[in-house]
Amino acid sequence: xxxxxxxxxxxxxxxxxxxxLVVGFSLAGRSLAQLxxxxxxxxxxxxxxxxxxxxxxxxxxxxxxIRIDANGAITVFTGxxxxxQGIRTALLQVAAEELDVGPERITLVTADTARTPDEGLTxxxxxxxxxxxxIRNAAASVRLLLTQEAASQWSMPVAVxxxxxxxxxxxxxxxRLSYGELxxxxxxxxxxxxxxxxxxxxxxxxxxxSLPRIDIPAKLSGGAAYVQDMHMPGMLHARVVRGPSHxxxxxxxxxxxxxxxxAIAQLVQSADFMAVVSDNEWKSIQAMRILQAGGIDRxxxxxxxxxxxxxxxxxxxxxxxxxxxxxxxxxxxHSVRARYTRxxxxxxxxxxxxxxxxxxxxxxxxxxxxxxxxxxxxxxSDLLGLPLDKVHAVHVEGSGCYGQNxxxxxxxxxxxVARAVPGRPIRLQWMREQEQGWEPLGPGMVTExxxxxxxxxxxxxxxxxxxxxxHNNRPVGAGGVVAGQEVSPAFPVPEGxxxxxxxxxxxxxxxxxxxxxxxxxxxxFVKDMPVRVSALRSLGAHLNVFSIECMFDELAKLAQTDPxxxxxxxxxxxxxxxxxxAAARRFDWAARPRGNGVIGCxxxxxxxKNLGAYCTVMMEIEVQRDTxxxxxxxxVCAVDCGQPVNPDGIRNQIEGAVIQxxxxxxxxxxxxxxxxxxxxxxxxxxxxxxxxxxxxxDVEIIDRPGQPFLGVAEAAQGPAAAALANALAxxxxxxxxxxxxxxxRVLAALNPPV
Length: 754
Description:
Elements: H1 3-24, H2 32-36, E1 66-68, E2 74-77, H3 87-99, E3 106-109, H4 127-154, E4 162-163, E5 168-170, E6 176-178, H5 179-183, H6 216-221, E7 236-240, E8 249-250, H7 255-262, E9 266-270, E10 273-278, H8 281-291, E11 296-297, H9 308-314, E12 318-324, E13 334-342, E14 354-360, E15 363-368, H10 373-384, E16 391-395, H11 407-420, E17 426-429, H12 432-438, E18 445-453, E19 459-468, E20 519-525, H13 541-559, H14 563-569, H15 574-587, E21 599-607, E22 614-623, E23 630-640, H16 647-666, E24 672-673, E25 676-677, E26 697-701, H17 717-732, H18 743-750
Parallel strand pairs: 2-3, 7-17, 15-16, 19-20, 23-26
Antiparallel strand pairs: 1-2, 4-5, 5-6, 7-10, 8-11, 9-10, 12-20, 13-18, 14-15, 14-17, 18-19, 21-22, 22-23, 24-25
Helix pairs in contact: 3-4, 7-8, 10-11, 13-17, 16-17
């Protein structure tokens, strides 16, 4: 079949599929805005076009993703948001590649409830897999439409019309038509084509290149990079008035105290919700301090203890079977049983959460750094009793956080204040101690692992249990934010629920990718939360990968075999084997320094969620035996995330994940006294500083031309934690299983009581 005939048939298929979608899925008559923002119950829109890739399944119309003006200006829309992971740059590259134009010709609009498709949360390393895939295929469909239109106008075969990278279609005889001219005569309110021809990797002009990230210059220069930097004409500054931490409330405030505060700033109050507003930020802080000076109450009983193994394993649980296999196997000759724990963790956002809100002409607009902008709209609508179409939420970057910090709460706070002061933009930022005291924590977790090997060092039994609270309590209604419990009547707190596998929450990555015999994996889901918890980057994968990979090293030591060899012997996935061997080659694993009491090496591997990117981390450390401090001398990582879009951006993500994971694993732990938080600043909650960063981090990206995008942002958290723990055991001969592996614990292990 000739290419001309093939493309002609594709055009016919394109138009036929458009009609089929409209009829088959009853989309006719629904507006683009309804489709782009039409999620029910706090979720993105349901699947309406199952044959389309990525989030085109939910929002199939091309003009929900791409618009081309008559002057040739191109706008691309995504429901995902920039969190410092470089997604704006990567998505620009994807769109530019398939449209065959330079990235500078494209304006990218991120999550905005009035303009972009509702793609749900920016979480779980889904941005490239879902939005990147959708944009790539939408752009390819648009390019095909433009090519067909040019061929029609020139009365020539489609196959001879070409793009040239400059926003124009070119004919063999030299004639040209710009994208703008062609788009002016087309409707793009048609569904994407399921199999739109994609550009071949060998012809790429943009994808696969390390273009400079577009979000970096303002951050480096001190420009307006974050919502914390926003300034609007007539803007007022607000501060919320609360007790020191979640689980507390202020005692009633006497009239004299109220009078002193009102002399400085306007008071906004709704039942137990209280805030102060002024045209001067310092005045608002002063008024807040006056109102907070009284005593506090702690309603309810304090937890008996805040040790994960004690607290979580004593609470009621629901047992969920994740995996159960029953295989014939040789008798066991080696067995290991171990328990691993992770404490509750703060997000450690460098900038306290902030939002700007404006209530004008009956419409509430909120600028927020939440990872769920459409959920912010739902929360504010619920909290204020406003129709959904009277709430407009816009994403603006915030200075720090992967997971649910205070962003959603502060957006609701700002909206409550803005309703009381209509017509004036309200900037509301939490104090540092409020961020530490009120944000949801990353859940504490416990795992117990029992494994056995036969005489040939084959694992013949694997029993794995994990205890955890829910990890995703992100608000989809007013009951999920702090203010929702302060207004009257209060909104009920939603019941925590587990996320089903294969995504999982506390169960995430509890099912090993390895080929093991007689596996039993159980998730003990603990619904009752002793403290406020929600999503922290990588969810349960951090401890689950840590536990699995530490157990492999414990088994290797018992069997006196190489840890890498043991992993490869139990791994059938070819791409997993490739990232292990690539890291080993780059690290020179065979010639690595062996544990000598001070120096040690270790490794960790995982495929994130067993469906995202593959990542191996190898690490060399030095232990200061007099202080217990761990110095990370070098880190080598290998990652396979399918078709690379921006290699430097991928390295940024892996490097950042390693550094963050090392901070969690060796330093961070939320403090409690009587069930209340005690860590309100960096002195009480230390995070890693520049002096703690590894001396070198080397990242090898395995090129997979044409392969689907795999999410990479959270791929290294678990492997990095495990590599550190395994290197520490190699260096000292002592295994530490309870995070954080801090100097106090290291010293205690090196100098056990006689």
